[in-house]
């Protein structure tokens, strides 16, 4: 089972960009789908984006479509979330997760994640 460590969070002004990274340990990274969730203050954790093991299938929450891009580099055991045109509503702790599933139905649901990172805080100021 992989272990995940997120990085790249920070404070950015509205309209700015950040790139989050999720570094995975273990030799089985390429067999997992990688997913980003986020949890805003006082709210439940929500799905943001997912990429299947082969990068052929990517999925996004409607709230981030056209602004965020998820990708992965299996050679580096790392997944990324490029976030552009950030809005104050994007302020949250962003979590990386790995799942042995690859179909969209499962990747949107926390209960189908095999492992989680500890999260990285993104704050977008207005």
Largest sheet: 7 strands, mixed
Strand content: over 45%
Question: Mean pLDDT, rounded to whole units?
Answer: 95
Low-confidence stretches: none
Number of helices: 1
Helix proportion of residues, in percent? under 10%
Please count the beta strands (DSSP E, at least 2 residues each). Answer: 11
Global geometry: globular
Distance between the termini: 40 Å
Helix-strand string: EEEEEEEEEHEE
Entry keywords:
11 strands, four-stranded antiparallel beta sheet, 126 residues, 1 helix, mainly beta, seven-stranded mixed beta sheet, single chain
Would you mind describing this structure in some detail?
- The strands form 2 sheets. Strands 2, 4, 5, 6, 9, 10 and 11 form a 7-stranded mixed β-sheet that branches. Strands 1-3-8-7 form a 4-stranded antiparallel β-sheet, with no helix packed on it.
- Strand 4 and strand 5 form a beta hairpin.
- It is globular, with a radius of gyration of 13 Å.
- The chain has 126 residues and is mainly beta.
- The model has no long low-confidence stretch (mean pLDDT 95).
- The chain is built from 1 helix and 11 strands.
Concise synopsis of the structure shown:
Helices cover 3% and strands 47% of the residues. The protein has 126 residues and is mainly beta. Strand 4 (33-39) and strand 5 (46-51) form a beta hairpin.
Which helices and strands occur, and which strands form pairs?
Elements: E1 4-7, E2 10-13, E3 18-24, E4 33-39, E5 46-51, E6 58-60, E7 68-73, E8 78-83, E9 92-99, H1 104-107, E10 115-116, E11 120-125
Parallel strand pairs: 2-11
Antiparallel strand pairs: 1-3, 3-8, 4-5, 4-9, 5-6, 7-8, 9-10, 9-11
């Amino acid at each position: 089972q992989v272990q995940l460590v997120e990085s790249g969070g920070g404070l950015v002004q509205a309209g700015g960009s950040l790139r989050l990274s999720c570094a995975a340990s273990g030799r089985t990274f390429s067999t997992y789908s990688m997913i980003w969730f986020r949890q805003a203050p006082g709210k439940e954790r929500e799905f943001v984006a997912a990429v299947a093991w082969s990068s052929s299938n990517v999925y996004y929450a409607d709230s981030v479509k056209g602004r965020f891009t998820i990708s992965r580099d299996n050679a580096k055991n790392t997944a990324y979330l490029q976030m552009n045109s950030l809005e104050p509503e994007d302020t949250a702790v962003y979590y990386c997760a790995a799942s042995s599933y690859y179909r969209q139905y499962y990747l949107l649901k926390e209960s189908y994640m095999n492992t989680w990172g500890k999260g990285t805080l993104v704050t977008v100021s207005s």
